[in-house]
Fold these 2 entries.
Entry 1:
Amino acid sequence: MNENIFKALVVSENDDQTFTRKVADRFLEDLPEGEVLIRVHYSSLNYKDGLSSIGNRGVTRNYPHTPGIDASGEVAESSDSKFMPGDRVLVTGYDLGMNTSGGFGQYIRVPADWVVPLPEGLSLKESMIFGTAGFTAALSVNALQNHGITPEQGEIVVTGSTGGVGSISVLLLSNLGYDVVASTGKSSETDFLKGLGAKEIIARDVVNDESKKPLLKQRWAAGIDTVGDTTLATLLKSTKQRGAVATTGNVASANLPITVYPFILRGVSLLGIDSGQTPMNLRCQIWNKLASEWKFPQFKKLSTDCDLDNLEPEIEKIIAGHQRGRVVVNLQ
Ligand SMILES: NC(=O)c1ccc[n+]([C@@H]2O[C@H](COP(=O)([O-])OP(=O)(O)OC[C@H]3O[C@@H](n4cnc5c(N)ncnc54)[C@H](OP(=O)(O)O)[C@@H]3O)[C@@H](O)[C@H]2O)c1
């Protein structure tokens, strides 16, 4: 057997501009340059991977391509003295899985600056149950705390709450003592969200005001939004004086139809979350929290397991907005 061959999901562009996904053999020498070669044990599925898998040029410019913005595994080779073969590490974000061959392959080669030593207290698999989604949820909660939002101030709303970022946000906030109101399009998932600690479940429409009113009745102390557009605008317009909303995503759209009034009349803050480019010191702090005081036991119930051969239906589900929790991909 040629040891330079490994298995990966390969997305290819067809002559008619459609895209095909298949599991194929790839060669180590075709991986990009970088100081650290990692034998991937686990990856996870994020919304961005869905976009890369269907040919979204905003995520991935050139095909054929192997998606996967997350990976955890063991260092196979390193030309950087910070890492040794056998070290257990994880990589999330930066350019991984976008225009750099990603975690849906058994090997990745990346710059040493992208590599996080696996924090003590997390297994390689557990780190991918969190993955980018959990890391982003934790960054969002951290940002709200740094803004001074405390449980006594009132309810926190989370949108897209059955998805990856949403479900882990619900879990973290409720375990930290906040009253969480979970907004979802999936009325069948009430028990799932209650199990994560949500105090109340509301339908998506409740936080999607299309009236164009500049301000709405104040309800939320804070929010975490994954949806964008009129949903994010609704949250901002209905956040209480000096509250804050962390914006993480744009599953509805990247638009934000709003006036300045929530900001200049109520002192509401919009907190931007950019997990991909998080500086290494904050990155390690947040991963260490997820490995210790924020490692609440229910997080293990969030994940579905799959391997490369049965990833396809999971990709279709995440693109359709039908995923629940997290999908961990086993590449061993
Ligand atoms: N800023 C960052 O660093 C960062 C990091 C990670 C993810 N993101 C972004 O955050 C978003 C969520 O990512 P994810 O990985 O958590 O995705 P996900 O697991 O697919 O979750 C998205 C959830 O949003 C809801 N949703 C889907 N389509 C919707 C629509 N048209 N209108 C309203 N709600 C809809 C669904 O939940 P319900 O059915 O419960 O409503 C869905 O499960 C994406 O836009 C992603 O790109 C950003």
Note: DSSP finds eight helices and 15 strands in the chain.
Entry 2:
Amino acid sequence: MTADAAIGACRLCPRRCGAFRPARGSGDGFCGLPALPGVCRAEKHFWEEPPISGTNGSGTIFFSGCVLRCEYCQNGAISRKSCGTVVDENGLIELIKKLESQGVHNVNLVSPTPYYPIIRRALERYKPAVPVVCNTGGYERAETLKSMEGLIDVYLPDYKYSQSETAKKYSEAADYPQAAAEAITEMFRQVGAPVYDENGIMRKGLLVRHLVLPGNVENSLGVLDWIDDHLPKSVPVSLMAQYFPTGHEIHPELSRRITPEEYDQVVNYMLLLGRDNGFCQEPEAADSRYVPDWNMMKEKSE
Ligand code: SF4
């Protein structure tokens, strides 16, 4: 482990805290995270979209912590704190090689935002033969993403909110719509429209996800409007129906699953826009069984 992994004045994400983040322990910024990531799970994962999971699985590395604070977070067990096994760039390279040796279709970095400097150093030293997927909540700085150009092959961002007030209410991020729009534009500039291999696995490109929230159909339609105005139809959209209340919700409208009618409204609007190459989920996806077991790597709070 290296003391020089510390970040002096962190402005990696749109919050631009300017905070000191020591290599280990707690940082002073909004996220409270240190510079070295905790890894909560590094295993094959079969529940991503078909071009990501394929038949062999996606090699997911789930990082702890998050720069958003979504009250309904579906991965709250690892996103609200620094936890998992702390790794430096050597440790990350080992994990990437281990997943690669298991025959995964890609290496899938989940919630990498607070850790881009260490991830960049690892990928500059070892770039796997399989694509590297950047799987993020979409709350990114375009400038930070530029530092990852050439190292990420597939961007898999959420676009959660088209409405600033909704982003502020649920995630303490009023600037989310603008920040995510700029970030996704930069992602598309870097990797372009999807390129698939002979088995339909994405080798390069952009796939945008959106989780439909209960009582928020208008927000979802606004997200689809932005996507359709700014991205070619070859960029698939994944509309997720898997929302389930976790018990941390403050706003009462979030205390239930989405209804089939709400989901149908959003799916039908996507089809009306002529975006028919995306992904939908069956209602049974709304189940906590789809939350992975976070104890795959020995949990060690820092
Ligand atoms: S990564 Fe954390 S410390 Fe850095 S700007 Fe974002 S919230 Fe602040």
Note: The pocket of iron/sulfur cluster is lined by residues 10-13, 15-17, 19, 21, 27, 29-31, 33, 67, 114 (CB under 6 Å).
